[in-house]
Amino acid sequence: MQNSIRTIDFTRYSSIRIGPVLDVLVINEIGDYSDYQIIGRANNLLVSQNTNKKFAILGEEFDYIKQEGNKLYVGCATTSGKLLTYTRKNDIKNLEFLAKLPGNLGGLVKMNAGLKSWEVFNYIDSIKTKDGYIKKEDIDFSYRETKIDTIVYEVVFNIEYGFSNEMLKEFTKMRDNQPSVASAGSCFKNPKGDFAGRLIESVGLKGIKKGDMSFSELHANFLVNCGNGTFDDAIYLIDLAKQKIKDEFNIDIEEEIIIYK
Question: What's the rounded mean pLDDT across residues 89-95?
Answer without folding.
Answer: 93
